[in-house]
């Protein structure tokens, strides 16, 4: 029997998405022209399906920082942080991340995925508990699998359900790490963080907030949902990524607990991976400075968000979240309608994301649009116009 | 049949009827994915319903070993016994 046999259902799902035009999954982008423009299938399109929330991928000073580091420090570190890959810039970035939060400790990982893998598997072990939101990102679930701890899911964004599960642990709740995200990337919804904080405090549990999609987006200094909610003092760990608002690749964990430093000695995904390249670290340091200073970028992003949400709500689309945020998920009735919307938008010069089960919660079929501070008002108008035109086309075909 | 097993079977049947109302009577040896056609997300949601019904938390790794309804029943009975 072929080892590949088990993948047949996945192949069937992919085949069901058709083979005319660009693939909706792993869409080939021929060339990226700017933070908001690219060429797909020979056509210039607005990129509205990236995570480039602050639009910093082409920011001249970020590119210059990366270029200088590339020329001065070479293309790669060729080793892990534990061996030969701990350069001054890696340590400087960690200091800057910690300083941004006013906390004593920060760790940098080679990807955002590895940050969750490394923190959850290293931090929480046998005889301890991971309580994770059921809509958690795959990196959280995989971190749990790698950990020797017992993993228990609670209902999505449901503090009362978490409360019951912590109560069942009794005194062991003090050995439980609760994991929530600052912004859920599929539906674009946010957790009731204040209620989660109240529950975890009552049971003496620990709290980790994954701010992958909310870092750079929320809070006066862009530190994420916990900052915006005024709850930084209640959080034990914040995990984030460099590959969204920070426009690079990598991940981090910051903590008010100085003992986070000990995790460097125990986290296998941290120990056994090559450290990020000098160019990536230099670009991230510059992007972080811009992010923390970047209230104007955030204001522009939120203007774009409010513009799009206002228009799309008026169209009558069902959305994944009523709260405006950088991710807008339009819920469509079935896979083929979602696919038709995705293709229709691309034909109208807008690249978004098609999201289908099993990657989505509750078996939903989604057209996912993500916004950037670099989008102009005209870009948002074009996205709105493309959505409106697609909605009319679908309505015509339904009645015709 | 023990009272506990009966309670677990009732909770599973109730959650299955909610998830797959067209199903009718189900063979307890049915595989959750192969026979009932549930995907991984649907199985997680099904288990959440059962957890609520039984006032129980089911560790994720327990589910990894479960293929059929009978196996699910056995695991839940074991967890309930431990809870008691």
Task: Characterize the structure shown.
The complex is a heterodimer of chains A (400) and B (84). Helices cover 40% and strands 16% of the residues of chain A. With 400 residues, chain A is an alpha/beta fold. Chain A folds into two domains: 5-54 and 295-399, Alpha-Beta Complex (Aspartate Aminotransferase, domain 1), CATH 3.90.1150; 60-293, Type I PLP-dependent aspartate aminotransferase-like (Major domain) (Aspartate Aminotransferase, domain 2). Chain A has a seven-stranded mixed β-sheet with strand order 4-10-9-8-7-5-6, sandwiched between helices. In chain A, strands 1-2-3-13 form a four-stranded mixed β-sheet. In chain A, helix 5 (138-146) links the parallel strand 5 and strand 6 (150-154). In chain A, helix 6 packs parallel to helix 7. The longest helix of chain A has 23 residues, at 377-399. Chain A starts with 7 loop residues before the first helix and ends with a helix. The mean pLDDT of chain A is 96. Chain B is mostly helical. Chain B has one domain (3-83): Non-ribosomal Peptide Synthetase Peptidyl Carrier Protein, Chain A. Helices cover 62% and strands 0% of the residues of chain B. Chain B has helices at residues 3-19, 40-54, 60-64, 69-83. In chain B, helix 1 (3-19) crosses helix 2. Chain B is globular and about 35 Å long. The model of chain B has no long low-confidence stretch (mean pLDDT 88). Chain A binds chain B through residues 134, 141, 144-145, 150-153, 155, 161, 164-165, 168-169, 357-358, 360-363, and chain B through 39-42, 44-45, 48, 52, 55-61, 83.
